[in-house]
Design a protein that fits this description.
Elements (H helix, E strand, L loop, with lengths): L13 H10 L4 E5 L7 H11 L4 E6 L4 H9 L5 E4 L4 H73 L6 H32 L9 E4 H14 L7 E5 L5 E4 L1 H20 L7 E9 L2 E8 L27 H11 L3 E6 L5 E7 L10
Helix pairs in contact: 4-5, 4-7, 4-8, 6-7, 7-8
């Protein structure tokens, strides 16, 4: 009945259906409640355990409604349809279920890309900080090695004119000279490594992205991770500016800013923590604002963008804001922090708009 619209595989029993799912990617499972061997709910309970991403639908008679409602409440079934069902109703339900499965698949894929992007940028930001810290002591070592080399040469020249133990002294100084040479080679290699560590990770391909859409994905991710419930989030995205950038990078920035704002708002001592999110076009630039009424940041506001710096800690290593600032600058934009007249802390992402001739990928 539906094979002309989307691929359909059929099985004569629940056990046969489970075998099919081992061999094929099944996005939607539709089953009758009354089947040989096991009931539809028993089948869908197994599907939930073994193939949790599949969308589960149940067809049931009136007498089985209570069981179907219990299955929905326990999360085993997304929806049930009561007999007799209409063909068009069934088609519509299947279309909705397939769309949901495809959407969930895209979200999972994007989440994995987000993790990869965050991991790469985290390593890069940490490595850059470490490289900067290493350059100074390595420079001191190199300068001191030069002094040692000069001193060894001077001592060798002096010994040529002096003591009867000149050969033994010359051998000792030669060992020192060799050690200095080895140390200098080591310093050179460290400097080469610090340069490699400072390089940015490879970029994903750029595409035309609605900045507001990237924010919506980040909000959904924040909700699934349990962050969103820690503060009241007010969203105003009537304007949807388009930018040319890797989608995962934009979602990464939005998610980092949301996580930071939510955690700050959750630490408000007197009253409800609030996070305000908005997109706009200001001065011809695409803008994302994320503001919170959390504790006031004292001292240098820009210190929040330093890896591991005070106020810059998100979850984990504390590099989320540093990562976001770096990505923004690589995209030709900027990320700034300021205190608003409403005594809120606002992070503003500004990016150049997508060129008119750019095509959506």
């Amino acid at each position: 009945m539906c094979g002309d619209e989307f691929p359909v595989l059929t099985a004569s029993s629940g056990a046969a259906g489970l075998e099919l799912m081992k061999e094929h990617e099944i996005g939607v499972v539709l089953t009758d409640q009354r089947m040989p061997g096991m009931t539809g709910i028993e089948l869908l309970e197994k599907v939930e355990t073994e193939h949790p991403d599949a969308i589960r639908l149940l067809i049931t008679a009136y007498s089985d409604l209570q069981a179907a409602e219990d299955a929905i409440n326990r999360g085993h079934v997304r929806r049930y349809m009561r007999k007799p069902w209409e063909p068009e109703t069934l088609r519509a339900e299947l279309r909705d279920a397939i769309d949901l499965y495809n959407l969930n698949s895209r979200v999972r894929e994007l989440e994995q890309r987000l993790l990869d992007t965050e991991r790469a940028y985290s390593l890069s930001v940490v490595a850059t900080g470490l490289a900067d810290e290493l350059r100074h002591p390595v420079g001191w070592i190199r300068n001191n090695l030069t002094v040692i080399e000069t001193s060894v040469e001077a001592a060798t020249s002096a010994l040529e004119e002096a003591t009867p133990n000149v050969n033994r002294a010359r051998g000792t100084l030669a060992q020192v000279a060799n050690a200095v040479t080895d140390a200098r080679d080591g310093v050179k290699r460290i400097l080469e490594l610090t340069e490699e560590m400072s390089k940015a990770p490879e970029e994903a391909p750029a595409e035309v992205v609605d900045l507001a859409d990237a924010v919506r994905v980040a909000l959904r991710k924040a909700e699934s991770s349990g962050l969103r419930g820690r503060a009241l989030i007010e969203v105003a995205m009537g304007v949807e500016p388009k930018v040319l950038a890797p989608r995962t990078n934009l979602v990464q920035i939005a998610l980092n800013l949301l996580a930071n704002a939510i955690q700050r708002a959750a630490n408000r001592e007197d009253g409800q923590g609030v996070v305000r999110v908005s997109t706009a076009i200001l001065g011809g630039q695409a803008v994302l604002d994320v503001a919170d009424n959390g504790p006031t940041i004292t001292g240098d506001l820009d210190a929040v963008f330093k890896p591991f710096g005070v106020g810059g800690r998100l979850q984990g290593a504390g590099v989320g804001l540093a990562i976001s600032k770096r990505i923004a600058e690589e995209l030709g934009g900027e990320l700034q922090v300021s205190a608003t007249d409403d005594k809120e802390t606002r992070f503003r992402l500004t990016l150049p708009p997508a060129p008119n001739g750019a095509s959506r990928s």
